[in-house]
């Protein structure tokens, strides 16, 4: 069975990265959700970010 | 005028929340301008335009929060600052004692059985977060836009390799295992599966199916570019395969704007020759090809929902009796002046806007728009309507740095007033999309605007007709019936499908 079809048979468990409202909506529906408090990587410094990307 | 700029280092908040705060604070008496934003380059430009910058602002980074205010008095500024603090604190407290991890890795340590990442970070960081989620074995719904086509292709190829869903970028809606993700309606569960490349089109179809009494098994969003030649329909094809193999799905609906020809052929190739019934709706596209393969096609979103319902349940599709619109077109026409001949559609949903244009083109030679069907119908300026005009106000040029019109009605209300000034406008056509993610009470924004417009029109001895396409289900958090009643009480004609709304609008202006 494909992973997508496996997902259809499981309880949906969400990691929410970004808009907190989406986390709130899921909670109101009693859906299991972990919210990531996102911070721009490298403090949002574009130069540093591009250097970090190259290092990967 | 007093200016005040506060910078909070390393305090990241999402844009939807900050827009809500900015709007609330702007309403405080004595406050002339309020911009509460993360210090991105784009937002710094916005601050420059309203003359609220200093050296510190220019040096701030996208993880710094800027609170920039202009007010008439020290008191007003203080009240505004207190309000911002209060709203930020309230949000933090609402998160309770719950610990929020800072990274996906940490989240997965806390909840190792997580199976889907819903990602809505700013576009420049989105592809990297999605890649990490796929690498960790999670299915992904990527709500963020402003992700490059190159990144989209890479992400979808990675997902394909791993057999995972990569819904998006710019995927506004999905319903997996009955759970609405981002902008989605509270639909009933049933045996109709949908793969949709157009967000509000998919919302419209899944909502109508529910109001007919049917239900959906899964709604897989692909993002609007999936059926472009470059992406090759990777996610739509994977979605089709998954729904073909799903015991809970009997009928499969495909919805998209017209795909690239070679992609359409590939998709249809995948769909033919299975036991499942398919209903194909590529808004405005020539579907003779699909018909050749014996696939059922539909020409509107409403028809798509009806055909899917009938194929699945073997009963005639009929919307509830109370949804029927009973109006006397002749009487309405009598209230208009001869110069009032045009429709102005102000849409929040791109696919609904597309559908309106396609339907109107059957009757009118030209329908102008910012997302026009042909180059010659493209509005030279998005702010200036011409004759019959239908605008997608959810398009990037309206939403850069501003909230989406499904969440915030400010831009649309302003545009209503602008359109109402014209002596040529007979009908203002609006979509109102309900469901999770959308505005909590659209009628509360539109009713005062409709009333004010009517007063102005009446003072000039004329009238302006409002026609609303109300998209949603009776179970949506906004209360469908209440929204309908309130809009109707204000004098709007409320149709429960976009097709019907467009047809009513056209019948009013047709000679």
Automatic annotation (TrEMBL), chain A:
Q: What's the protein called, per UniProt?
A: FdrA protein
Which species is listed as the source? Answer: Thermosediminibacter litoriperuensis
From TrEMBL, chain B:
Gene Ontology molecular function, alphabetical: succinate-CoA ligase (ADP-forming) activity; succinate-CoA ligase (GDP-forming) activity
Any one GO CC term of this protein is: succinate-CoA ligase complex (ADP-forming)
What sequence ranges are listed for the domain CoA-binding?
188-280
Q: Which domain of life is it from?
A: Bacteria
Q: Spell out the InterPro entries in the cross-references.
A: CoA-bd (IPR003781), NAD(P)-bd_dom_sf (IPR036291), SUCC_ACL_C (IPR005811), Succinyl-CoA_synth-like (IPR016102)
Under the heading SUPFAM superfamilies, the entry gives: NAD(P)-binding Rossmann-fold domains, Succinyl-CoA synthetase domains
- Give GO BP annotations, semicolon-separated: tricarboxylic acid cycle
Q: Which Pfam families match?
A: CoA_binding, Ligase_CoA
The residue range of the signal peptide is none
Tell me the ranges covered by the ATP-citrate synthase/succinyl-CoA ligase C-terminal domain, including all copies.
Answer: 346-506
Stated name of the protein: Succinyl-CoA synthetase alpha subunit
Q: Which organism is it from?
A: Thermosediminibacter litoriperuensis
């Amino acid at each position: 069975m494909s992973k997508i079809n496996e997902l259809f048979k499981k309880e949906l468990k969400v990691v929410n990265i970004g808009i907190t409202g989406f986390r709130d909506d899921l909670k109101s529906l009693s859906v299991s959700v972990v919210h990531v408090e996102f911070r721009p990587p490298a403090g949002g410094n574009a130069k540093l970010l591009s250097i970090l990307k190259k290092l990967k | 005028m007093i200016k005040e700029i506060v910078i909070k280092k390393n305090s990241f908040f999402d844009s939807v929340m900050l827009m809500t705060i900015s709007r609330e604070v702007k309403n405080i008496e004595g406050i002339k301008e309020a911009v509460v934003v993360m210090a991105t380059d784009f937002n710094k430009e916005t601050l420059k335009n309203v003359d609220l910058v200093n050296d510190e602002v220019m040096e701030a980074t996208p993880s710094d929060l800027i609170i920039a205010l202009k007010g008439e008095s020290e008191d007003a500024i203080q009240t505004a600052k207190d309000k911002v603090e209060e709203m930020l604190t309230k949000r933090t407290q609402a998160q309770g004692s719950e610990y929020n991890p800072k990274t996906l890795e940490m989240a997965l340590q806390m909840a190792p059985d997580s199976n889907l990442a819903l990602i809505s970070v700013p576009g420049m960081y989105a592809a990297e977060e999605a890649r990490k989620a796929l690498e960790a074995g999670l299915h992904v719904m990527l709500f963020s836009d402003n992700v490059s086509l190159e990144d989209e292709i890479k992400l979808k190829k990675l997902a394909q390799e791993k057999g995972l869903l990569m819904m998006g970028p710019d995927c506004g809606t999905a319903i997996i295992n009955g759970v609405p993700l981002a902008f989605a309606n509270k639909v009933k569960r049933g045996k109709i599966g949908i793969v949709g490349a157009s967000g509000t089109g998919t919302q419209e179809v899944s909502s109508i199916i529910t109001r007919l009494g049917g239900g959906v098994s899964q709604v897989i969003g692909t993002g609007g570019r999936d059926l472009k030649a470059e992406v090759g329909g990777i996610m739509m094809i994977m979605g089709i395969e998954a729904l073909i193999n799903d015991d809970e799905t009997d009928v499969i609906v495909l919805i998209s704007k017209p795909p690239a020809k070679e992609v359409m052929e590939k998709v249809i190739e995948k769909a033919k020759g299975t036991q499942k019934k398919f209903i194909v709706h590529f808004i405005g596209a020539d579907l003779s090809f699909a018909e050749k393969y014996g696939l059922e096609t539909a020409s509107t979103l409403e028809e798509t929902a009806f055909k899917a319902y009938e194929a699945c349940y073997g009963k005639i599709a009929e919307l509830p009796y109370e949804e029927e619109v009973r109006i006397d077109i002749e009487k309405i026409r009598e209230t208009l002046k001869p110069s009032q001949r045009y429709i102005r559609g102000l849409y929040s949903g791109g696919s609904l806007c597309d559908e309106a244009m396609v339907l109107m083109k059957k009757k009118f030679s030209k329908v102008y728009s910012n997302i026009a069907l042909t180059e010659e119908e493209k509005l030279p300026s998005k702010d200036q309507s011409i004759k019959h005009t239908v605008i997608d106000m959810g398009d990037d040029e309206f939403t850069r740095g501003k909230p989406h019109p499904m969440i915030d009605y400010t831009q649309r209300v302003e545009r209503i007033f602008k359109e109402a000034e014209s002596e040529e406008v007979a009908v203002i056509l609006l979509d109102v999309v309900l469901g999770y993610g959308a505005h909590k009470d659209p009628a509360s924004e539109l009713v005062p605007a409709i009333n004010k417009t009517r007063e102005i029109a009446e003072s000039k001895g004329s009238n302006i007709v409002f026609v609303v396409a109300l998209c949603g289900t009776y179970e949506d958090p906004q209360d469908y019936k209440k929204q309908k009643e309130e809009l109707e009480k204000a004098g709007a004609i409320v149709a429960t499908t976009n097709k019907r709304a467009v047809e009513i609008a056209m019948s009013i202006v047709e000679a």
